[in-house]
Amino acid sequence: MKLLAVILTAAAAVVWTINAVLHFVYDTSLPLQLLNLLCALLWCIAFLVQLWHYRNNKSL
Known about the structure:
The chain has 60 residues and is mostly helical. It has helices spanning 2-26, 30-55. It is elongated.
C-alpha cells in the first residue's frame, strides 16, 4: 500500500510538471502559469515525502 502511494504521487508529480511546462509554452496567462508551477512543486514535494517515508518504513 505504501509503494502504491509512492507510485501514485510520482505519477501525479510527473503529469502536473508536464502540464506546468505546457502552460508556460502555450498559455499567456501569468497567474495560471504560476498556479500550475506551484501545484507541480507541491506534487514533487509530496512525492519526496512519500518516498522518504517509504524508504524509512514509516507510515503517514
